[in-house]
Amino acid sequence: MKFFIDTANIDEIKKAASLGVLDGVTTNPSLIAREKGKFEDILKQICDIVDGPISAEVTATDYEGMLREGRAVAKLHKNIVVKCPCILPGLQATKTFFEEGIPVNMTLVFSATQAIFAAKAGARFVSPFIGRLDDISTDGMELIEQIVQIYDNYDFATEVLVASVRHPMHVVEAAMLGADICTMPYSVIEKLIQHPLTDIGLKKFLDDWEKVKGR
Ligand code: E4P
Fold first, then answer.
1. Domain that holds residue 101
2. C-alpha angle 73/51/67, rounded to 5°?
3. Residues with Cβ < 8 Å from 137, sequence gap 6 or more?
4. Which ligand 1 atom sits nearest the alpha carbon of residue 163?
5. How close is the Cα of 186 to the center of ligand 1, in Å?
6. What's the CATH code of the domain at 96?
7. Domains in the chain: how many in total?
8. What confidence tens digit (pLDDT) does each residue in 108-159 have?
9. Beta strands in the chain (DSSP E)
10. pLDDT, tens digit, for every residue of 37-71?
11. What is the pTM of this model?
12. If you take atom 5 of ligand 1, which residue's CA is the nearest one?
């Protein structure tokens, strides 16, 4: 399973990259809006830190506009992935980007049918938002199970990028279902390594070692 960080914050990306387990970055307009500086400059900085897919979202909602914005960000760096919303022009743009060799992350996916279309259009990644489904009392993980099964049935090459991840159990369940990638905030990445019994056990070992050192 690959781990992406879901942020545009350079400090958090540097911290996550230093752990040695970071495979890519996802951004969206809301995450970019939280940071200072120009969109393109933030993307370039991220590309300098992480050598993996970096998702940059278009904000146009029409086909031509998506193509214009997507082609422009794709030129910034070889690792840029154009993020297109799962609406009709987004689907059309995904097909065109696929034909041009520009990778697409189809975002704001909330149903299996949307995921099928994303794969058929040639998206490299599909981003089902599980936390936002959970928020409206719908089982987000059930959608991951459906998409993994469907992609497997038809040998679709599109990678399942589990998004809107809110806590470690989302990661565990997605891994058990065979999802390809989880993207998550830095706060969740940190929680994946933490365990109170590890801290208690380490303290006991170190306390006991003090007795040995005095010999
Ligand atoms: C994915 O690429 C999105 O940026 C993200 O996961 C959305 O998560 P949220 O529902 O926590 O905003």
1. 2-213
2. 15
3. none
4. 6
5. 12
6. 3.20.20.70
7. 1
8. 999 999 999 999 999 999 999 999 999 999 999 999 999 999 999 999 999 9
9. 2-6, 24-26, 54-57, 80-85, 104-109, 125-128, 159-162, 181-184
10. 999 999 999 999 999 999 999 999 999 999 999 99
11. 0.96
12. 164
